[in-house]
């Protein structure tokens, strides 16, 4: 049983690491592409297209990174210490600080700042 928890912790840690690498790499690429396009191209259709397409791709990657966060681990209620999973929609619209999100605990039914934990 201890081995199963360790495997779950390692898997969830890898998912969160993948999320961070994906998000930071995409953000660096996005900023570099925008700077390069704005500094080298004149105003026009090509510049607008590059900005629009790169923004849409970046937003799509960030939605996928959020999906990785939701799949990795559980959220822990600060009130009752219940560990629970939340739906993608609830996590998407919840205010957050890093991976801590303001969610409603299904156990005590109170809204609290639920921290991301790796194992149940």
Task: Give a short summary of the structure.
With 120 residues, this protein is of the alpha+beta class. The protein contains three helices and five strands.
3D structure, described in words:
By secondary structure, the protein is α+β, with helices and mostly antiparallel strands. It has 2 domains: 1-72; 73-120, no CATH class. The protein has helices at 2-40, 45-71, 88-93, and strands spanning 74-76, 83-84, 96-97, 100-104, 111-117. The protein has a 5-stranded antiparallel beta sheet, with no helix packed on it. β4 (100-104) and β5 (111-117) form a beta hairpin. α1 runs antiparallel to α2 (45-71). The longest helix has 39 residues, at 2-40. The model has no long low-confidence stretch (mean pLDDT 95).
């Amino acid at each position: 049983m201890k081995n199963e928890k360790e495997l779950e912790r390692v898997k969830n840690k890898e998912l969160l690491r993948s999320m961070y690498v994906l998000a930071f790499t995409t953000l660096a690429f996005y900023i570099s592409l925008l700077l390069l396009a704005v500094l080298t191209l004149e105003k026009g259709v090509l510049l607008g297209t590059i900005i629009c397409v790169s923004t849409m791709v970046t937003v799509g990657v960030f939605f996928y990174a959020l999906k990785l966060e939701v799949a990795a681990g559980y959220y822990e209620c600060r009130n009752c210490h219940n560990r629970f999973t939340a739906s993608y929609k609830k996590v998407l619209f919840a205010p957050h600080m890093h991976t801590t999100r303001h969610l409603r605990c299904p156990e005590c039914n109170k809204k609290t700042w639920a921290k991301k934990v790796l194992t149940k």
